[in-house]
Amino acid sequence: MAEVKPELTVLTSMAVVRETTNPYVVDLNRLLAHRVTLLLFSWRSLLTGRWDVFHVHWPDAMLRRSDPIRTLGACLLLSAGMLRARWTGRRVVRTLHNAEPHERHGIVVRATLRLVDRTTTGWIRLNDHTPVPTHGFVVTIPHGTYADWYADTPRPARRPGRLAYVGLVRPYKGVDDLIAAFAQLDLPDVSLHVSGRPVDAEYGRAIARLAGADPRVVVDLRHVPDGAMAREIGEATLVVLPYREMHNSGAALLALSLGRPVLVPANAVTDDLAHEVGEQWVQRFAGTFDARALNRALGAVEGLDGSPDLSARSWEAIADQHVVAFARAVDIWSEHSIAAP
After folding, report:
1. Could you give the CA distance from residue 330 to residue 341 in angstroms, rounded to a whole number?
2. Structurally, what CATH architecture does the domain formed by 9-144+314-339 represent?
3. What CATH class has 162-311?
4. CATH 3.40.50.2000 domain range(s) in the chain
5. pLDDT at residue 328 greater than cutoff 50
6. Of 2-11, 74-83, 110-119, 313-322, the least confident
7. How far apart are CA 128 and CA 95, in angstroms?
8. Residue 9: beta bridge partners?
9. Which pTM value belongs to this model?
10. Predicted pLDDT of residue 338
11. Residues 125, 98: contact at Cβ < 8 Å?
């Protein structure tokens, strides 16, 4: 366990834990709470609370509201929190989950996110290929395994020929491409299950229409609870994630944690993942996703048994590395204060 000052207090951008809360953040905070004083997020804590480090995940999600007035209010509150941090020597450490935000934002949200970036002291990236701003220190801490999260969840036997897509249903994730490619797959006894909540209602309706044209396709367009998610992955021969852009994928790590191979786009990040966990476990396609990519991947994973190597993704080590990053951010401020005239 990392050696840190016992008075180190970290405010996390995660508020109360809900059924839809990302397990990555829940697992990380569960272990951080044994290493630092951890405060769950509230606007009051950000603006008036006693904390040393504000650990930010997905700052754009903090600003997402149902109408423009509430969005503006969230932007003003977060901006005030950043100004407080700058003026009082509190530090901001941000985890970069994505190379770019998934959705386009208005001018006020973009300005607020730029202020968060300028206030950030340290950047935590999940792989070595994430671009970071030129200021502040950078550390790479990998995404942890989901094995412990699903340790008590029953895992069914795989069903031959079953393909699965799991996770949020967004246009950039290529679910429509997957259904179209699957329709061209001329193999007996194959099926496709799509499980996940659409972020955009119209896109969800389009996916349902596409799936309705092929009786081999089953869709469950809602938030999928842990037990159902484990069942969908466990019954799959291959988990297919045909993203048009993939940088970090919790869905890929989830499938691998449950012992199922994945098909993902080929890039530097997924190449590194394949080298780490085993080439056969991470099938990749280059260029446009099509039925040939599905066919090749199904053949490549036939008879695959055992488990991928996820030994480098221990949550205990990951939590220790986060604490070191937080302490480094605080030490930077202390050194700056001592050196200041």
Report:
1. 19
2. 3-Layer(aba) Sandwich (3.40)
3. alpha beta
4. 9-144+314-339, 162-311
5. yes
6. 2-11
7. 13
8. 37
9. 0.87
10. 38
11. no
